[in-house]
User: Fold these one by one.
Assistant:
Number 1:
Amino acid sequence: MKRFLCCLLCGCMTLGLLSGCGSNKDEGTKETGDKKGTGKQETQGDAETVVIWHDGDEGIMDTIAHCVNEELKDENIQVTFEKKSGLTDQLQLYGNDEANGPDMYFYAHDSLGMLAEMGILAPITDLISESDEADMLPMTLKAGTYKDTQYMLPVYFETLLFMYNKDLWEGEVPSTTDELLAYMEQHTDTNAGTYAVVNQHSTAYNVAPIINGFGGYIINDSAEPGLDKQETKDAIAYNKKFAALQADGDYNTVTTLFNDGKAEAIVGGPWLVTGIKDAGINLGIKSLSEFTLPNGEKLAPYSGVQGVGVMKYAAENKKEAITSVLKAMASEQVGIDLAVNANCAPANQKSYEDAQVSSNEMISAMKTTADTAQPMPNIPQMSVMWGPAESLLAAVNKSGDDVEKAAKQYQKEAESAIADMQ
């Protein structure tokens, strides 16, 4: 995932297992760090064990493990999460190792293409039916699909939001980006170091809502860079108007400005919430999908989806147990527990019918954003696109380079970088 997303993992705040599947924490997660060759157990007592590797938040994994194990206790199936640093490297080493590898893995969707190309994953559709996923948000299912094959079951997701200080913002938050720009012009004093809105204006992930909304793209599903596409150039030129009214744009700068009360609003994600609350800010949240661009389209941010994939050998040798685990993970109760206990936005749409989930302003805003959000490309070539895309944005926003000229230059760099991967 893009730099900071890798470690933020939904910015989730573990509050303890308070509802849903129960309040007594299950012994479903164990820390293994960089330990290699764990030697999987086929049974734990009388239960068949399914080992899932991850590198995420222990509280989130505890929540999932507790709920799934409670659901499957009558089937004598036990899910065990093992934390691995450098998870993708570990999967490259042990993904085909039945003795020392995992049965499943839990990770962000943008690594999917690389793992699928290694030939270590089994299609999810070989194990569960379409009806088992009928309640999933379509965007999350798309994230788990690579080359028309679904390899990942989505569990929760994250995306950018418009987050504002209710004590500083004047009036209603606008419904169009042009109106937002006008508000910024009236409420920004760069000399005084105070801003209406701050954003990482030269970070590709943060500019993607405008690029995607304009119909442009950083890279498409056919691994073709789109930095010199007219729609992308138009979006970058439009973003420059906002960048001129914002601070330098790096993560620490914009976060500090907002938390210190020197910015009325920030474009950010759930990973910011803990710091915002610690700063005592009266936080309001609006979905980016509620802002209309000049072309009549909505802002369309990238989304990161967290989910589970299955190793080929596990699908072949533990099919019944793996199928049961997948069905349990797809349940609305797992989504409810994650929302209530860890502040995560569920992939299962039915989870939002729960009163505790629907009353969460941030989670509800993320569900709204799922209508226009686009999963970050999960093709391997995306990994070399962040550099050229951000060099282009920096050249335009910070150095004042001509959009046409800069787009042509960095499109060539992107094409060369992709060619070098072959």
Number 2:
Amino acid sequence: MKNKSLFCSFILFSLSTFLFCDVFSFNDLQEKLKENNPDIKTVQEEYNRSILDYKDALAGMGPKIDLTISGTYMVNPPVGSLAVNIDDIISAVNWPTGTKPAATGQRIKVYDGLENTYYNFGLTLEQPLFTWGKLHNAAKLYKEISNIQKIKLNYTSRQLETELETRLVTLFYLNRITNILDEEKLYAEELVSYSEDAEKSGMLLHQDVVDAKIQAKELDIAQQGVFEQITNQILELQRITGIDNLFLNEINFNFDENIIPEIMKRNNNELLEKALSGDQDSIKMATQAKVIQDMALKISKGAVYWKPDVGMEMSAGYGGQRLPFAEPNWRRKDDYSINVSVGIKTTLWDGGKKLNAVARDYSSTASAQVNAEATRSTIRKTMNEQWNTAQVCSMKIEYQDLKIETADAKIEHQEVLFKNGYGSKADLLSSKINKCTEEITKLQHELSRAVSCLTIKFLAGE
């Protein structure tokens, strides 16, 4: 009674776990992908930094203003008070006879000395006036880099969403293969049991029993292989979506197989032309990479010898023992200064480094052009390969349909023979096992075709 209660408790716990577990639809998994995927987060941060770089480049075209404030407290000021003896002044004057004043011995303070505090204020403004377009082109360059990062973010998101859909489609077909393998395993186990009984009665040889057991063992291996594939797909889904402890029963995804014939009906040349158009993210990134190198080349050309940069600097300063405007007689002390400077700076010779920089940017521009052409070539090659794979899989699927039809006919024939006592149960079970094998082969071809079609759809930007 106690064991029965424990068994019932276990069943109720299993049902509650199944009923109350999270269920993720395709849209839910897409949202988790956008929220948690590390690749998307990395590209997002790269895009954020590129925006800041662009803002810095724009700021470099405007003025730079620096403010310096310092205050000093001197315990022992270096200059003390100054006083003059009146008698020394009287003695220095050439008085008429009899009019020289008498000595008094008095001293007059003429300078109180430095105070204990000293303040220094400086305001500097630097403004580039003419730089041969270097600053302007740098701002354009960083803007293009930011645009590329934005396109890369969209491209990465689409690429991972396609990977997500591909893995879900793979699970869809693997689940169907698992069901057929379970059915085939039942036939194989029945065949082993029948063969063992037939061997005891002398109707079959021992080798026939061994062959049946080998066939059943091969199915065990096949089931384990499919289980490992399902496990790997689940682990990859956990990785790209950031969902911990994701289970197969938590995924609610039904693949609409009608999209495959719709893609197969499309014109290959039209899809290829669409994949190679300038609207595709991969083509945009390759094209804009060349634009960036062109701008870098312009910047290098603007920095060669005998091309001076012109800039202006304005400065205002104050240095005194008290805060500005609080010092007595501040107008007469000339503690304030205002300066305006215009400067020119250029490199006359540096051993040829600037010329090498120009040549290097020429090379980078050529490389960017080659990479753009290589990108188009790779897309063209991948599209043709996937299209051919899909076509071959369609032919193999049609071939498998014929083999399945033949297997059905053999099963029907063996059933008639077995009912009439002319055929053996082993032949009937072998026919059913053979049909399951053909159905699994067909599903494998359907999976390969679906993956190819999803890849074509991604490359075509749909």
Number 3:
Amino acid sequence: MAGQSSAARRSAEAEVRVRPINGFIGAEIDGIDLRRPLSPAQFKTVHDALVKYEVIVLRDQDITVDQQMAFGALFGELSIHPFSPNLADKPEVIVLDYSADNPPALTDIWHSDETFREAPPLGTILRAKVVPEVGGDTLFASMTAAYRGLSERMKQHIHGLESLHDFKPWRPLFGQNDRAKLRKLEDEFPNPWHPVVRVHPVSGRRILNVNRQFCVRIKDLKADESDTLLEFLYRQATVPEYQLRVKWRPHTVVMWDNRSVQHYAAHDYYPARRTMERVTVKGDRPVGVSGPYAPDTVAGIGTVKPAVPEGTRPGPKRAFDRY
């Protein structure tokens, strides 16, 4: 019996399949049932896929919130968001329930989760409960691909820079009568300086580590210089080649590596209802590239199209040809 059990377990683990979705980001994982504890081998497959592909999609996972939390806890301690609505008995679980009575807000902007923290989350796990018939997709962008797509001169320019992050989307929640509470939160979450180029603690890849939702300014630059550079860097998340668009179905579970991914939840389904439950895994403080600039030698997935040196591209064969 023991031999049969071991063989069955090995067979189940052999059925786990990781299928890349796009050239730079995303993979679907089949053969995992989150209703049951993962074996060490299964977890290693999932963990390695998350680090490599940055977003993993698991379909048809009809699980409870406790099972979702147990899956998240495999990656580390779960965190509690200081502002988002959560379950009273499970504060680690954020409930995102949008409808005509509660229109969606704050998520239709490119961002990484909670970079106003000294140690932003390692990853986020979102589970679909109610999905609109049309719309409600989530878009993801690989910020490792975004970094690789920059010119060497721009990589040199941003090397060693730091940007200030703030919980600015939630500041409007605090009126004149809430100043004491706001000051308390400011003490609890003092604005951190994070490297503009982060090094992934597992893969060693370099990551473009600025996002429109939480960044305020770049250290040692004048305001107009900082704003101009940040606007350019923010736009890298909008490059379609670096993106993945997930179409939700009920019982879909998506986990993304918050250290290297930005996301954007489209608000194109109002007034329909869209209900998600989210758990977030604590991370560590971002670390930048040490020492003077040198080209990155850590490989990533996908191939960034090389720049064509001026004067080397052949001219148009016909007057109306354009390149």
Number 4:
Amino acid sequence: MALDNPIEKRTYLKQMLRSGTSIGAMMREAKFAQSRADFVSKTSIALKEANETLYWIELLHDGNYIDDKTFESIHGEANEITSILASIVKTTKENSEKYGITERLFLNS
């Protein structure tokens, strides 16, 4: 049974749009990070936003605002993005520790 609450639906959609577009904005900033730590920080924020986007997608589905087919498609893609970002953060941190990389410029490298 669908919740017939257009205000709730609009709120969920706006939040999903905000968190979803924030992922791209943070990754754009990470591209021009001033250091490895700055890169990890910005990528970690993008990861948090991706996780939040998953939350809003799930609420939309649970409220029957999106059907199962749409949910499976966008939830699957959002999960992939979240996994990729988690891997980037983990690998960057591990490589920094492994190779003893300290703060140095990391622009477009």
